[in-house]
Design a protein that fits this description.
By secondary structure, the protein is of the alpha/beta class. Helices cover about 30% and strands about 30% of the residues. It is built from nine helices and ten strands. It is globular and about 45 Å long.
């Protein structure tokens, strides 16, 4: 089976450092957001300066240098959907100088009872995608670094924001989330589904960098609607909460 054909060699035919140069302007912290609206909002609010980019046949995505009100500097970029694209962004920004990654975006809810009204912090991901198998030996799941998971949770604790630690199902096939597969993933303990976590976690393990992620439920495969009422009780908008938590996560990493 191709998925069992893992090669642990650190050097490939083409390596990121062969084509990507260190960027002295690049912070060691990077926040990647699966939402152009959040990126655009905070580029404007923080008067961010473009210091680089990542590019593909889909075009160029800028990488912005930002400074939070508390003085924390970080890079900010728009992530691309799917394990291969998300993994490539991590691969290409490591040689630029990034060592700590916090990724945030939406997901689908499998277990509405767990996800309702909460931010979701993955501690492990079912590897129902292809990218992770090029970075780690074959296995059903990949665990995220517990220290990095704890850092996200401490950030939300400091904000008195509700969250749940979850196992996520990372899939390549959005249109093949059948009812049978949903039930199987629920039996495995998955509460949410998305398309990048396992891939990004595998790259981070292989490259020896810090990686954490948190999610919010955009829809529900359980047949119910996610209730966001708890966010309004915190005295801040959702985007403000997400970005504040992401920045605070770096303090605990």
């Amino acid at each position: 089976m191709l998925h069992t054909d893992f090669d642990p060699a650190q050097t490939a035919v083409v390596n990121p450092a062969d084509v990507i140069r260190h960027n002295p302007e690049m912070p060691e912290n990077l926040i990647g957001v699966f939402s152009y609206k959040i990126v655009d909002e905070y580029v404007r609010k923080l008067n961010a300066v473009q210091i680089g980019h990542h590019k593909s046949c889909m075009g160029v995505q800028p990488i912005w240098k930002c400074k939070w009100p508390d003085g924390t500097e970080f890079a900010l970029t728009m992530m691309l959907v799917g394990g291969p694209c998300a993994a490539s962004i991590i691969e290409e920004t490591i040689p630029m100088g990034v060592r700590r990654f916090v990724m945030l975006g939406s997901c689908g809810a499998l277990d509405h009872g767990i996800t309702a009204g909460h931010i979701l912090v993955p501690h492990s991901a079912v590897r129902d995608e292809g990218t992770s198998y090029h970075y780690l030996p074959a296995a059903e799941e990949v665990s995220l670094d517990p220290r990095c998971v704890d850092a996200v949770c401490k950030a939300f604790d400091s904000l008195n924001a509700p969250y749940a630690r979850v196992k996520t199902w990372t899939t390549d096939a959005f249109y093949r989330e059948t009812r049978g597969k949903v039930e199987k993933r629920l039996m495995q303990g998955c509460s949410v589904v998305e398309m990048e976590c396992a891939s990004m976690a595998a790259v981070a393990k292989f490259r020896g960098v810090d990686f954490a992620q948190f999610l919010w439920a955009a829809d529900s495969l359980s047949g119910e609607v996610w209730d966001q009422r708890n966010l309004s009780d915190l005295g801040m908008g959702a985007n403000e909460l997400y970005m504040e938590a992401a920045v605070r996560t770096f303090r605990y990493m």
